[in-house]
């Protein structure tokens, strides 16, 4: 897989939606002999097209990640109960929370149309498994299709859908889990064991992800059957990332000393630094995506602008303390054992 894409470094830059994966980060990864993925989630098709054009102009290998539709609708009762719980914090920041649930598919059809009309080298998918016809169309357009999975059963389903490769994500990963069943939090299986479980069921190329923060983690994943690893949290503090200043600061702040898997921010399981928001709202947050994402979004944006780390979704994997403020190329080369 890596040879086909012209990649010499087996440490890839994972997509991180919401700002951290800026085009500069994807370009920096490509120039280092790696490859980065533009994060298509939460972007309009036109904004994604602009970022594709910007990275393509640099002539580096790259991919685009999309959120495949896998909605868990919110009941009116659960939605309004959670909204009421959030109102004191929203009032404190002077923001209005949506009165009714917003259910959308993140412009799925339009983004697929974009990638069919203007193909990119790799399309990676997460949150759900699209219909095999979509996979076939992307492959026919010339893109390699890579599916994020969190278990061996999901890997089997993805192989049956016709994908070219798998990103095998352990629960140690920062940000959203790619699980197909968001009502169930994936168990804490170490990445090497998860890779071996998946390798026993498929011969597709595997990319390991989740908790990779040191060269030894890369070696362990490769020894377990992966062709490469994908890292996200390790790149959050790099010079080229678009991570917000409060988020970068929290990654090295002793007040944020642990991570937790929570649905409080978006209604899907995601690993973040433990803060006031996770402590206060996890128990009352419904499993309902994307309604919860849209409900909390105005509050999270206001908190970020105000530097209020108590209320920000501080996505981070278990190895967040190893993230360094340095050029992205240095991080990727160091993890690959080349520095």
Automatic annotation (TrEMBL):
At the top level, the lineage of the source is Bacteria
Signal sequence extent: none
A Pfam family cross-referenced in the UniProt record is: NMO
What catalytic activity is recorded? 3 propionate 3-nitronate + 3 O2 + H2O = 3 3-oxopropanoate + 2 nitrate + nitrite + H2O2 + 3 H(+)
Q: Listed GO molecular functions?
A: dioxygenase activity; nitronate monooxygenase activity
Keyword Glycoprotein annotated: no
Q: Which GO terms describe its biological process?
A: response to toxic substance
Keyword list, A-Z: Detoxification, Dioxygenase, Flavoprotein, FMN, Monooxygenase, Oxidoreductase
State if Flavoprotein is listed as a keyword: yes
Needed co-factor(s): FMN
Q: Which family does it belong to?
A: Belongs to the nitronate monooxygenase family. NMO class I subfamily.
> Know the name of this protein?
Propionate 3-nitronate monooxygenase
**Organism this protein belongs to:** Prauserella isguenensis
């Amino acid at each position: 897989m890596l040879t086909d894409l012209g990649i010499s470094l087996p440490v890839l830059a994972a997509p991180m939606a919401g700002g951290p994966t800026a085009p500069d980060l994807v370009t920096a990864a490509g120039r280092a002999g790696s490859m980065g993925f533009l994060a298509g989630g939460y972007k309009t098709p036109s904004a994604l097209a602009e970022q594709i054009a910007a990275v393509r102009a640099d002539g580096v290998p790259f991919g685009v990640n999309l959120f495949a539709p896998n909605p868990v609708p919110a009941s009116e009762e659960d939605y309004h109960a959670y909204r009421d719980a959030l109102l004191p914090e929203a009032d404190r920041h002077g923001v209005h929370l949506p009165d009714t649930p917003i259910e959308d598919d993140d412009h799925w059809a339009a983004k697929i149309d974009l990638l069919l009309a203007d193909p990119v080298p790799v399309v990676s998918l997460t949150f759900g498994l699209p219909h095999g016809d979509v996979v076939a169309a992307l492959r026919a357009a010339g893109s390699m299709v890579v599916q994020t999975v969190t278990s061996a059963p999901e890997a089997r389903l993805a192989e049956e859908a016709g994908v070219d490769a798998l990103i095998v994500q352990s629960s140690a990963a920062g940000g959203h889990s790619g699980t197909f069943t968001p009502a169930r939090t994936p168990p804490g299986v170490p990445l090497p064991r998860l890779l071996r479980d998946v390798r026993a069921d498929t011969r597709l190329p595997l990319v390991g992800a989740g908790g990779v923060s040191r060269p030894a983690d890369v070696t362990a994943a490769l020894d377990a059957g992966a062709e490469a690893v994908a890292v996200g949290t390790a790149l959050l503090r790099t010079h080229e990332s678009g991570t917000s200043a409060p988020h970068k600061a929290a990654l090295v702040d002793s007040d944020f000393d642990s991570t937790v898997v929570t649905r409080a921010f978006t209604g899907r399981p995601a690993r973040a630094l433990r803060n006031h928001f996770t402590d206060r709202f996890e128990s009352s947050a419904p499993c309902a995506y994307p309604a919860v994402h849209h409900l909390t979004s105005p509050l999270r944006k206001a908190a970020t602008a105000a530097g209020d780390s108590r209320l920000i979704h501080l996505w981070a994997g278990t190895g967040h303390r190893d993230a360094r403020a340095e050029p992205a190329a240095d991080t990727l080369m160091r993890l690959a054992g080349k520095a």
